[in-house]
Amino acid sequence: MVEAVFWFFAAVAIVSALLVVTMRNPIASAFWLVCTMLCLAGIFFLLQAQFIGAIQILVYAGAVMVLFLFVIMLLNLGRDDAALKRTPTWFAAVLLAGVLASQLVPALIRYSSERLAFEYTRSAVLADPRMVFDSTLSAAQATLERGVPGDIAKPLFEHYLVPFELTSILLLAAIVGAVVLAKRRI
Amino acid sequence: MLLGPSLAVSAILFTIGVAGVLLRRNAIVIFMCVELMLNAVNLTFVALSQAYGSSGQVFVFFVMTVAAAEAAVGLAIILSIYRHHKSVDLQQINLLRG
Amino acid sequence: MIAFDPTTPAGTALALLPEVVLSAASLVVLLVVAWKHQGPADSRRAGWLALASLGLTALALVWVAANAPEEPGLGLMVALDGFRYFASALILLVSAGSVLASLGYLERERLVAPEYYVLVLLAVVGLLFMVNAQDLIVLFLGLETMSVAVYVLAGYNRGSTYSAEAGLKYFLIGAFASGFLLYGIALVYGASGTTNIVQIGAQFGEAELSLMAKLGLGMLVIGFGFKVAAVPFHMWAPDVYDGAPTPVAGFMATAVKTAGFIALARVLYTSFQGSVLVWQPIIFALAAASMVLGNLVALAQKSLKRMLAYSSVAHAGYLLCALWPGTPLGMSSLTFYLVGYGVTSIAAFALLGAVGRDGERDVTLGDIAGLAETRPWMAFALSVCMLSLLGFPGTIGFIGKWYILSALVASKFPLLAVLLVLTSLVSAGYYMPVLMAMYMRPSRAPMVFFDRGLAGSARVAVAVGIIAVLALGVWPGPVLQLANHAAESLAQTAGQIVARR
């Protein structure tokens, strides 16, 4: 059952992603991108990442895509682009993407948790205990004890505190940059 | 559970995003394709979080922050180029070439 | 002496003291700018404040370097080794140089928006995190912080179509490259179960890499290839350098490139130290392509700015050569060459900014003809820069290239060394005409710009750069020693876990 739902979401996500690339109208592209993101949120729920799934819908499908649509509407770009011509560049791009996919997909689809664990433990040095979070708690147990967001909050505010603080500088840079660019005159 | 298929779907979505960046000429659509690539990577992280614990989901958080910051600055840049060219089509914009 | 323990939160804050100081200082500058942002005087004040912030950061860096514990511990987010200190100091130095060059430049080009300096400081924070990162996530976020600020800086001259387009191009390519880098991080995380650069190295060890790890490595190299502008991922560089304000182009060619190479070197030498044979062919191909294509296309350029851009692609090739051997000697030559390239390029871009107008897009050899008569010192300085980029004996560029060659020869694979020498000879074909134009051709009367010349602050940057180029060209000992020390400490960091086994 879960697998059937997964493949449904996966198929819709891939088809909508293809439509993002092939639709000539930017607004249509944006809507298909929202569709892809919603399907991904569905997959996240299936993979027991409920909080991330919710955030995906709120932040990505909600905020970021609205920003995109806002700009498209503001600039009145809702007209069709020129059709994709089958130029040499077109073939080169498709070829490159084909090579990339043929390298990645067959290699990755064979991974199972067992194989990952096998490759992981095969190496000479076993992992430093500190890098695996709470090896005493299984994932399900951790979720039970701390709740779904708490399970993410713990590493976020403990082990990954430095990158978390760094994101604040990133956001500051983005704010200053956007304001500078949007000012009428310098 | 579903680790391999998730990774494969993620790879396919990533490749579609790459193809879109290379194929399209509209700056906004290219940027959407970049967002698609980042989303594909998020799926990889979430799939791996099943094996390695919730740190994978923490990374998704960071990626979302990055995507939001890039969206803010990127769309401002696209607005400023539109003021010059009244277009966001890279073929019409290209003054500097190669 | 107060040693601190970087495994505790307070110790982490101390280990990140330079970054913390610079972030706080950039907030102060932002406040001052928000309060006073009208005329050129306010812009100048912001510039001097930015310089002071960089100086304070350097002091903090010295403090951390002096007080860092010998054995910082495992699983840290930030590295505490000589490699980081060396790279951070170099980045602070070239950033100060580009701030100095910007001071007069922005006023002349009527770009008086003091937020410029805030963005430079935030970009430098990102760069410092790139070189101190011991975790791929920190590396990625540092890179993004830098990128977001530099996207805006590249498009800073909004009145100019070319600058706006440079911003757009850098943004689209940069975001695309970030996607590859991030996917590489995800796959490496999948293969190793961690994002800590040292622990990844311990996890992979000497064993053959799993398929997922190999794919991740490939994606990482593609992402970094874009960031350091190595062929075939270079096509953005000439256009972006061309359109961006000249001091920003200088900043990108020096500080950003330095951080990119340092981060790449740290990842390859630490996480993938056991799989040298996997990444050597990739680096070889990138290095050879960058040297050949960069130098050949530079020959065909008319505009000096584009010529410098392609020359920076070629120099990415030389730096990749230094990365190739995978030995401490190679690493040492990489860090030393980065110093040489950094001080030379900062001076070269500052000089270029002085001889033209409107972004220097159309400064050709004809425009600098006879510069030796009207501006002998500028002509002298530009000649020194060109000779150093060429690798002429007596300049730091020569010592750097010679050092890379010795690292390549020591690894018993001279093909890259031969290519390096041959392409350097080719590069004389575009560096020497600059000298000949300045000294042998008559000046084109009447002068287009009577007031061309360096602003006082830029003079300081150029003078320091030229003195460094010449002094280190004949007496490179101390910096070489520092570079050696940096390379050794990187090897030490990489060996931490293996040593404990």
Descriptive notes:
The complex is a heterotrimer of chains A (186), B (98) and C (501). With 186 residues, chain A is mainly α. Chain A has seven helices and no strands. Chain A has two domains: 1-78, Four Helix Bundle (Hemerythrin (Met), subunit A) (Up-down Bundle), CATH 1.20.120; 133-186, no CATH class. In chain A, 75% of the residues lie in helices and 0% in strands. Chain A starts with a helix and ends with a helix. Mean pLDDT of chain A is 83; it is low at 126-137. Chain B has four helices and no strands. Chain B has helices at residues 3-23, 27-52, 55-85, 90-93. Chain C contains 20 helices and no strands. The mean pLDDT of chain C is 90. The longest helix of chain C is centred in the middle third of the chain and has 32 residues, at 161-192. The two termini of chain C are 31 Å apart. The chains are: A mainly alpha (186), B mainly alpha (98), C mainly alpha (501). At the A-B interface, helix 1, helix 2, helix 3, helix 4 and helix 5 of A face helix 1, helix 2 and helix 3 of B.
Average of pLDDT of chain B: 89
| 3D shape of chain B | elongated
Global geometry of chain C: globular
Oligomeric composition of the shown chains: heterotrimer
Written as H for each helix and E for each strand, in order along the chain, the element string of chain B is HHHH
Low-confidence stretches of chain C: none
Largest interface: chains, residues each: A-B, 85 and 69 residues
CATH architecture annotation name of chain B: Orthogonal Bundle
- The percent range for helix content of chain B is over 70%
The overall number of domains of chain B is 1
Measured by DSSP, the beta-strand proportion of chain B falls in under 5%
Share of helical residues of chain C: over 70%
Biggest β-sheet strands, sense, barrel of chain C: none
Structural class of chain B: mainly alpha
List the helices and strands and how they pair.
The complex is a heterotrimer of chains A (186), B (98) and C (501).
Chain A: H1 2-22, H2 26-46, H3 50-74, H4 88-109, H5 113-122, H6 139-157, H7 161-182
Helix pairs in contact in A: 1-2, 2-3
Chain B: H1 3-23, H2 27-52, H3 55-85, H4 90-93
Chain C: H1 9-15, H2 17-35, H3 40-67, H4 82-108, H5 115-132, H6 136-154, H7 161-192, H8 197-204, H9 211-228, H10 236-243, H11 246-271, H12 276-299, H13 304-323, H14 328-355, H15 371-374, H16 376-390, H17 396-410, H18 415-440, H19 456-474, H20 477-500
Helix pairs in contact in C: 2-3, 2-5, 3-4, 3-5, 4-5, 4-11, 4-14, 4-19, 4-20, 5-6, 5-11, 6-7, 6-11, 7-9, 7-10, 8-11, 8-20, 9-11, 9-12, 10-11, 10-13, 11-13, 11-14, 11-20, 12-13, 12-18, 13-14, 13-17, 13-18, 14-16, 14-17, 14-19, 14-20, 16-18, 16-19, 17-19
